Amino acid sequence: MNNAMLEIEEVHCAYDGVPVVHGVSLNVCQGEIVAIVGANGAGKSTTMKAIAGLVHPTRGRIRFLGEDVTRTPGYAMLAKGISYVPEGRRLFAKLSVRENLELGAYTEKNRAVIDRRLEEVFTLFPILADRAGQVAETLSGGEQQMCAIARGLMSGPKLLMLDELSLGLMPALVEKVIATVVEINRKGTTILLVEQMVQEALEIANRGYVLQTGRIVQEGPAKELLASDTVRKAYLGL
Residue 91 and residue 78: Cα distance in Å, rounded? Predict the structure, then answer.
């Protein structure tokens, strides 16, 4: 795909020599929401970590904005414009909401820019403005997820990667968080989303990839995947 912002070609990953991702190829174009869906243990999070520079592929290539970033470490990927919101939120539990958010902007030296981004995320998540001085570990699960997404936005990313947004959230909150993802995308941020809740993810995505035991088994426009008999039987219980 010539206009791809992110290109992953035949990426293989392993932990302690045990292969978990087997030749994954995918693309994300500017302005899209792309979903990687599949069951737990399919290799979705490992694929995200490889893109974020937290796991280096054993084979294959990753390009971002035309540059080969296959061996680029995580801190440098953030500076290049990729922000990763990991599964399980990973907030700094003993720090306040505001401190967590400001740490998300550690690559930005201009105070005026940081303040503007804070204002933007507080507009997006008004509850975080109310909780700005509160210690992160005292937030509810939904508020922690919002804080994690907001922290991811504080670096001003070109690509925001969200890993298992719905994990541990009640259905009403999942809906709210998903709606916020659509709003973030509408404002111009490209999104790569990993999610076990297949229907919810594909309903907001432009395109999707189905990952099964470390391999892409199906890909295409999200609407087509939602209508696919295979996806409906395997993941939607239909």
Answer: 17
CA distance 109 to 29: 29
Whether this prediction's pTM lies above 0.85 is answered by yes
Q: Please, what is the end-to-end C-alpha distance for the chain in angstroms?
A: 33
CATH architecture of 1-81+158-170+188-238: 3-Layer(aba) Sandwich (3.40)
Domain positions in the chain are 1-81+158-170+188-238, 88-156
**If you write DSSP's letter for every residue of 61-81 in order, what string do you get?**
EEEETTEE-TT--HHHHHHHT
- As a whole number of angstroms, the distance between CA 20 and CA 37 comes to 16
170-183 per-position pLDDT tens digit: 787 888 888 889 99
Give the model confidence (pLDDT) of 13-33 as tens digits: 998 888 889 999 999 999 999
What the block records as the tokens of 91 is: 């907030």
Q: How many whole angstroms separate alpha carbon 215 and alpha carbon 193?
A: 17
